[in-house]
Amino acid sequence: MASTVLRVRLVGGDRMDITFDDPDIHDDDKLVEHVISTLSEDSGVLRTRHGDRLVVLYGRGIAAVEVQPRGAVV
Question: pTM higher than 0.90 for the full model?
Answer without folding.
Answer: no
